Amino acid sequence: DEQEDAGPVEAHSAVKPMTGTEVKVNVSIPEAAERAAATGADGVGLLRIEHMILSTDKTPSRYVEDHGERAYVDEIVEGVRSVAEAFYPRPVRVRTLDAPSDEFRQLQGGEDEPSEHNPMLGYRGIRRSLDRPGEFKLELRAFERLYDLGYDNVELMLPLVTDAEDILRAKALMQEVGIDPEKRDWGVMVETPASALSIEDICEAGIDFVSFGTNDLTQYTLAVDRNNGNVADRFDELHPAVLELMRQVIGTCREHDVATSICGQAASKPQMVDFLVDEGVTSISPNIDAVRDVQHEVKRVEQRLLLESVR
Ligand code: PEP
Ligand code: MG
To answer: Which atom of ligand 1 is nearest to the CA of 213?
Structure first.
């Protein structure tokens, strides 16, 4: 009868949407905003703040020392605003500062940054931000200003989190500057194995989305320095161990109604796209030059899934 005919499709679609994986785009510098928006991407999956600061050739603290807090906030607001404007009302994920100490040390004021033997395991991302709440709150104030200006398409993303504790501490600072985390879409990068293995607690911290930073997730899972040519042939985002972590994260996030995305370089690899669409990822965000190919690949996989479901 009728109900039986609809059965398999219904049963399948309850656990996995067959279509609708969004394709977003990573925007490296605000100047690329118009070109990125013209691709027809569903939003920006990653806009890095550090380029807006590092391009001034000064560390955040030196910049504030020389030009004042207001100017520092303005620098971020103007950089993000041009992208948020070009994409409005499509969402734009803006990541808070995430540069390793060796990059900061090359800038004016760099002598005040720590000198580390292993910057990739050191003072970067959310770790640095939580250790310097004064500096971090200036970034957060830039978000608050953007919301005030009406850019409600801006989403805040925290890099290199280890566990829910990192997120709850950042959330408290958001609230301190007047951001209401309940009212805004915000989330975190999943790029440490610890964050993948803590995903249940992380979902419960109140986030709206996670985004896989596969450059780092691969480096940390396989213990392969992403910048070390001696082991470059071992750097494989499609390694079964990396994919298994991602599979678990997507599954748990789906149970908690938390969106999942990828913004690492692997987002442009067809095999990664196939895997993620199969697992039910919410969106994929490659670099601008790969958007069209990824859009086609997503369609191809979704059509296959649709055919399989009615068979
Ligand atoms: C990543 O780690 O995959 C990522 C997108 O962040 P970044 O390359 O800036 O570390
Ligand atoms: Mg990263």
So the answer is: 3
Residue with tokens 């060796």: 102
Q: Where are the alpha helices (DSSP H) in the chain?
A: 2-15, 33-37, 50-54, 60-67, 69-87, 101-105, 126-131, 133-148, 164-176, 193-197, 199-203, 214-222, 240-255, 270-279, 291-310
Which-ligand-closest: CA of 214?
1
> What is the per-residue DSSP string for 173-217?
HHHHTT--TTTS-EEEEE-SHHHHHTHHHHHTTT-SEEEE-HHHH
What does the pLDDT look like over 126-179, one tens digit per residue? 999 999 999 999 999 999 999 999 999 999 999 999 999 999 999 999 999 999
Q: Is the peptide bond before 30 cis (omega within 30 degrees of 0)?
A: no
CB burial string 162-189: b at 16+ within 10 A, e below = bbbebbeebbebbeebebebeebbbbbb
Work out the number of other CB atoms within 10 angstroms of the CB of residue 93: 27
Q: CA geometry: angle at 199 spanning 194 and 200, to 5°?
A: 135
Complex ipTM more than 0.95, yes or no:
yes
**Quick check: CB of 213 below 6 Å from ligand 1?**
yes
* CA-nearest residue, atom 6 of ligand 1: 213
**Predicted model pTM:** 0.93
